[in-house]
Amino acid sequence: MTKEKNAGIAKTRLLLFLLFMKIGVFTFGGGYAMISLIRREFIERRKWVTAPEFTDMIAISESTPGPLAINSATYVGYKIDGFWGALLSTVGVVIPSFFIIYVISLFLERFLALTAVAAAFKGIQVAVAYLILSAGFRMFREMEKKPLTVVMAVAVFAVMIALDIFSLSFSSVWLILIGAGIGLAVYFAGRICEHRRRSPAAEAPAPEEGAENEAAGGEEDGAGEERGEK
């Protein structure tokens, strides 16, 4: 039984490494393009991660220091197999990018000067845009539809469009901090309102002991009279 368990653990770790290596090979366009690939492999096919966990993973990976691709791989690997899963997933997703960039850097100018390469990268840009957009729409559909989340999603989308149209520079760090601040403000406001609704019921005076005894005595006298009549 122990050998079978160890074999299963080793198989899972090897599969994690190979899956993230494959994702790293085909992740053109950065970590955001990798979202769709991770979703297909770990949510739709193997169901190792649930949709709400995936949404939390993206939020945590974007909010913490480091590239989104590496943070996401570390999160998923740790969720599935703890420390070793996180280590193997991170190494697997980094290795392809490292070697590809290293090889390209050796003859970068000649590589970019090729007409076929330039045309290929134009096609890749369109595919990357589709991957990012489709992943965003899927996450929005699966997100819990509350007034705050819907308003925040629409506001962020509008801000992104406005910044792009007017060519304005605005750090994504501030967007994260503003979103976190609004979420905390709404949370504490809800807690305060809930506390105020409960406080009148908690402060209501308890019925006096004498009144309770009189009511109980009256019920007993009434029951005695009914028995006497019978």
Overview of the molecule:
This protein is mainly α. It folds into two domains: 128 residues; 61 residues, no CATH class. It is built from nine helices and no strands. Helix 1 packs antiparallel against helix 2 and helix 2 packs across helix 4. The longest helix has 39 residues. It is flat. The N and C termini lie far apart (76 Å).
Summary keywords:
single chain, 230 residues, mainly alpha, 9 helices, 86% helix, disordered C terminus
Structure at a glance:
The chain is mainly alpha-helical and 230 residues long.
Query: What form results from the Cα inertia axes?
Result: flat
Quaternary structure type: single chain
End-to-end separation in angstroms reads: 76 Å
Strand segment count:
0
Helix tally equals 9
| Percentage of residues in DSSP E strands | under 5%
Mean pLDDT: 76
Query: Based on helices, strands and strand pairing, what is the structural class?
Result: mainly alpha
* Tally of structural domains: 2
Q: Give helix % range.
A: over 70%
Radius of gyration equals: 30 Å
Q: Major sheet: size, sense and barrel closure?
A: none
Element-level helix/strand string: HHHHHHHHH
| Low-confidence region ranges | 223-230
